[in-house]
Design goal:
The chain has 261 residues and is mainly beta. The chain is built from 1 helix and 13 strands. It is elongated. The termini are far apart.
Length: 261
């Protein structure tokens, strides 16, 4: 048998017989779906739809087989989301949202200050708007990664991450109840990833890693009103996603439907 084939077979056998292969994924949100206008004093809006994401497969750790590691793999995906926006004043909004990621609900909280233009309740055709946003979020995942038939041990991985986020948004109203908006944004995810091997209820091995992932991009969106209260929007986002030694540029669509009050 050729050496390369022998090595591949022995590696797979080691992974299957000696240990469980542990892997966990971090979903980073790319879509914004957030226009340049605030909702106005005492107003609020609700949006639901699908946001584009970049899924980062974090390092794989194989016990008893040193030197076998997998660098993060970055792939594109989508996640359902809901955003609820409250108007704290004519030019200040507070937005609370959740996305569904890897079996968990990931919450976000974002503040918006409108620097130029009128709020959505007062804006007219031909208007120009500009806003700035700052946000934070949290991601938490726990997964039972497998079972070793050779030792009877269980393998559990968990991940927690803090998301920080900033954006500038520019908007133009060519017609009433129609707008185009977009701008640059930056997101950072600081994560802690822990892998544990259990024999019964006792931890017999542990692997912990801390790191960060960054998303730098820009978006362009089209928003259209349906009557006085309802609306829909579609967005194209292009972003560079980087984690550890890996980086990838993705372009994806996102969309939502919503209602203003």
């Amino acid at each position: 048998m050729k050496p390369t084939i022998l090595f591949a077979v022995s590696t797979v056998a080691a992974c299957v017989l000696l240990t469980a292969c542990s892997d966990i994924e971090l979903d980073t949100v790319l879509s914004r779906l957030d226009s340049a206008e605030t909702v106005g004093a005492r107003g609020f809006s609700l949006d639901v739809g699908a946001k584009s994401t970049a899924t980062i497969g974090l390092d794989e750790y194989v016990d008893s087989v040193p030197g076998i590691e997998k660098h993060p793999e970055i792939s594109s995906s989508y996640t359902p989301y809901t955003d609820l926006t409250f108007g704290l004043g004519n030019r200040v909004d507070l937005q609370a949202g959740v996305t569904l990621g890897y079996g968990t609900l990931n919450p976000t909280l974002r503040g918006k200050v409108q620097l130029v233009g009128d709020p959505a309740s007062q804006v007219k055709a031909g208007s120009f708007s500009m806003s700035a946003t700052l946000g934070v979020g949290y991601v938490s995942i726990k997964e039972n990664d497998g079972y070793s038939y050779s030792t009877g041990d269980d393998y559990i991985a968990d991940l927690s991450a803090i998301r920080s986020d900033a954006a500038l948004i520019f908007g133009l109203y060519p017609q009433d109840r129609m707008k185009m908006y977009g701008g640059p944004f930056y997101s950072r995810y600081d994560y802690d990833y822990t892998w544990r091997r259990y024999s019964g209820s006792t931890v017999v091995d542990r692997y912990k890693q801390s790191g960060s992932a960054e998303v730098v991009g820009a978006n362009f969106a089209f928003w259209r009103g349906l009557g006085k209260r309802w609306h829909w929007q579609i967005e194209l986002v292009t972003a560079r996603v980087a984690a550890e030694q890996e980086a990838r540029t993705l372009s994806q669509l996102g969309f939502s439907f919503g209602r203003n009050w």
